[in-house]
Design a protein that fits this description.
single chain; mainly alpha
Length: 273
Amino acid sequence: MALAAPDHTEARGDRPAVPAPAVTYALIAVNTLLFLLGPAAGLNPLYGTGQARICAEQRYEQRWGAVPAELLTGHPLTAEQLAAGPDPVPGCPASPTPGKRPAVSALTGLFLHAGWLHLLGNLLFLHVFGPTVERRIGRTRYLLFYLAAGSLASYGFALAEAHSPGSTRVLIGASGAISAVLGAYLRLHPRARVTTLVPLLLFLPLRFPAWLVLGLWFALQWWSVHSAGPGVAYLVHVIGFSAGFLYACTMVGHPPRRPGRGPIRWPHPTKER
């Protein structure tokens, strides 16, 4: 698990200071706030407790999450179609979602999470790698990149699941967008050192090159696409990571940019450590 990565755009010596990664912090705050207000956290009394809260969570995810079949047709599924989907929640009848816009759900689904571990795992990676990528490409482009890559990953997953029972399973989470951030980081700073916890060594923190940590992470996601069961949409991770890596290829060779200003010009080339 990644713990910390160096930020390559902090002021150092004669290098100019750059703004804080406001977009990354805002995304973390919005994801956290929506989770706390939603039914999955179990803290909002409006959704009840016990079975009532579980059913409310299912309705909430079906209303705001991305459903592959809906993304491909552009129309929300009926209650009967949702009820016929895989892994229905026992005792919770499916409800129709009138007025739902599937194209919009590709974005809203990026801000929903199924539980505390799902949320904290995603936000940890966003906190570690997001600031450097944001400062490298600029706030506005970073936000558009995050949302576009997350939506692209959702639509790519929908195409892959078009003729499978999983096409009616709700897709939620920021994993696609955050995977794109990881892919961009790998392309922009492959030799940066990333601190990780190694489970086989009693969670001893060690530092490894980003290309090794993120390369192994991507390989694990790719392997899981073909071997893991339902529950985690690993293909979303693969698509998002690939999209972020390819986008960052267009940034290599260009100096970092400050929001609303021209490129930062450094008198000496940087060296990643």
